[in-house]
Amino acid sequence: MMNKFTNWVEVKLMNNDTESLLNYRSLAPFAQFNHPTQEHFLPLIAFLGASETSAAKRIHQGVEFELLTLDAYSFS
Q1: 49 CB contacts (<8 Å, ≥6 apart)?
Q2: Where do the domains of the chain lie?
Q3: Which of 58, 59, 66, 73 has the fewest Cβ atoms nearer than 10 Å?
Q4: DSSP secondary structure string, the chain?
Q5: Contact criterion met (CB below 8 Å) for 5 and 20
Q6: What is the Cα–Cα distance from 64 to 74, expressed in whole angstroms?
Q7: β-pair partners for 63
Q8: d(Cα 24, Cα 9) in Å, to the nearest integer?
Q9: CA Rg value for the chain
Q10: What's the whole-model pTM score?
């Protein structure tokens, strides 16, 4: 479940699909399981909006306790 969600996010970021990311709660697989509340996902949207270009690159991918995915992206 976790990998499907994080892979979906990565694909949408790489394809600059802002519309899908804004509607992730209804479009992303297992969104409710991975983010039952929005406070940990919305900063990604804020950084995406603040970037001069929306080109995202994953700079860190980590899994903690076989439950939490801790991905980090750079926007250039």
Answers
A1: none
A2: 2-75
A3: 66
A4: -HHHHHHHHHHHHHTT-HHHHHTHHHHSTTHHHH-SSSTTTHHHHHHHHHSSS--EEEEE--EETTTEE--EEEE-
A5: no
A6: 21
A7: 69
A8: 8
A9: 12
A10: 0.85
Q: Which two tokens stand for residue 27?
A: 């479009």
d(Cα 31, Cα 13) in Å, to the nearest integer?
A: 16
The token pair that represents 57 in the structure block: 């690159």
Compute the residue count for the chain.
76
Query: Are 73 and 44 in contact, with CB atoms under 8 Å apart?
Result: yes
Give me the amino acid identity at 25: R
Amino acid at 32: Q
